[in-house]
Amino acid sequence: MTTLILGGGISGLIAAWQLQKRGEEVELWEAHENVGGWVQTLPWPDAEGRSGYVERGPQGVLTTPGSAVDRLFKELDLEVRSPGHGVRWVGKGGALIPVPVGPVALLFSRLLNFSAKVRMMMEPFIALRPPEPEENLSAFVARRLGRGVAEDLLPAMVAGILAAPAEMLSVDALPKLRQWESTGSLFKGIRRSGSSELVVPKGGMGMLPKRLAERIPGVRRGLRAEGLELLNSGQWRVWGGGEVREIDRVLLALPAFEAAALLGSIALQSAEALAAMPYTSVRLRHSRHAPLTPLKDSFGFLVHPPEGQGFLGALVPSWIDPESAPDGLMQLRVFLGGAFGMDPSLTESDGVQRALKSWIPELGEPLQVREESAERAIPRPEMGHRRRLETALGGLPKGIDWVSNARFGPGVRDVIEGVEEWVLKY
Ligand SMILES: Cc1cc2nc3c(=O)[nH]c(=O)nc-3n(C[C@H](O)[C@H](O)[C@H](O)COP(=O)(O)OP(=O)(O)OC[C@H]3O[C@@H](n4cnc5c(N)ncnc54)[C@H](O)[C@@H]3O)c2cc1C
Predict the structure, then answer these.
(1) What CATH code is carried by the domain that includes residue 292?
(2) Residue range(s) defining the domain that contains residue 133
(3) Residue 90: inside a domain, yes or no?
């Protein structure tokens, strides 16, 4: 049986890889000339032509030994490295406050008051709640870890992952939370899944889709699917870019709104549920500066919203992956906007630099700047997501399925693990 996979982002490529590994025929159509979707590493040389790069999406992926991500990197012979545990801060009350790395540091942390710390430590003794009705992300964290964590720590973390306010989202926006809770407590779940580390393939995150595409002969680039129809034979006809295929199974590895557009005429219920899944856009600003000691071993910082007024945080890609910046330069990446809106001052020519300097006064003027806008880049699983997902999947006709980060969770790790589990039932 042959499967035609539409979409060559990480969801589609992993699905193709998993199906191919078990001996199935696959063909994959990717609309763009480059595979990877958001996982692409884009060249960014400096004025002297020295090499460097920016990531279009993820700066790295979380993994634990023996996990699906770890196995995948080994299967693909991808050399990866980890920056280790750098300093991270939360920007709050005008100052950068270190994020504690262990229980002792947490005891002394200024991020939470004493009663919030005590309440958080009681998490293993909090009774479980039935999964229904669907809970809001902020309410889930308040129930398990206390209001202090939900109000003082969670908003910056969620803004850094989903660029949206926690109270707007369903707990299913971060599926790991309910998986961990199902073991009895979040602490137990986290302990069981092992401590994860951030890794980046040598050459950047884009090496992952590139290597997958090299090993999957059926990958076709620059081919956008434009329509789908069911034939009397029970097969599916798919067309786009002047090509037509008649095929047994079609896997939509697309953002929900793209899948909805293709399903509109053949599965209205699924199409409507998928079209109702909102996505968030963000702006990204990359800059290179003379190195600074406080950021030398740092991952970066996230700002406690709404304090940043749309300035969500800044990472230090040159620490995460030193090859991203030419020798002797420090590279920063600022996240702006998302579902928070943005103060107009951040759109002024030196607005972001001024905002950065308000957090890091020693920061020098940028030597190079590059701005990107990421439109409808991040799924926003608002309350009701669980029902929308059930409706979307339940209404799919025989021979059609859908995989995406809007189904499995926001990170590359969620997608790799989700697709690996999905393929077992396919
Ligand atoms: C700015 C940003 C930062 C991120 N940072 C992190 C991070 O640090 N860590 C982490 O784990 N995750 C991060 N992520 C999330 C991660 O990048 C995504 O979860 C993941 O890339 C989603 O992959 P996907 O294949 O589901 O979707 P996509 O990447 O959107 O891929 C879908 C693909 O389908 C193609 N396509 C669309 N329509 C058609 C059509 N009709 N026919 C054929 N092809 C089509 C598109 O061109 C695209 O290549 C980040 C995302 C963004 C945007």
Answers:
(1) 3.90.660.20
(2) 103-194
(3) no
Q: Which residue CA neighbors atom 47 of ligand 1 most closely?
A: 31
Total number of residues shown for the chain = 426
Residue pair 218/26 in contact (Cβ under 8 Å)? The answer is: yes
Residues 244 and 388 in one domain: yes
How would you class 202 by CB atoms within 10 Å of its CB: exposed for 0-12, middle for 13-18, buried for 19 or more? exposed
Burial letters for 231-266: b for 16+ Cβ neighbours within 10 Å, e otherwise? eeeebbebebeeeebebebbbbbbbbbbbbbbbbeb
For ligand 1, atom 21: residue with the closest CA: 38
Q: What is the pLDDT of residue 92?
A: 96
Task: At 151, give phi and psi (nearest 5°).
Answer: -95, -30
For residue 214, count other CB atoms closer than 10 A to its CB: 11
Q: Report residue 296's pLDDT band, with 50, 70 and 90 as the boundaries.
A: confident
The stretch 388-410 carries a mean pLDDT of 98
Residue 92 lies in a domain: no
| Model pLDDT, residue 100 | 87
Q: 372 with 407, same domain?
A: no
| Model pLDDT, residue 105 | 84
Ligand 1 in reach of 277 Cβ (< 6 A): no
Taking the centre of ligand 1 as the mean of its atom positions, its distance from the CA of residue 150, in whole angstroms, is 28
pLDDT confidence band for 223 (50 / 70 / 90): very high
Do residues 272 and 388 both lie within one domain?
yes
Residue 312 Cα to ligand 1 middle (Å): 20
142 and 181 share one domain: yes
Please tell me if the CB atom of residue 59 comes closer than 6 angstroms to any atom of ligand 1: yes
Provide the number of structural domains found in the chain.
3
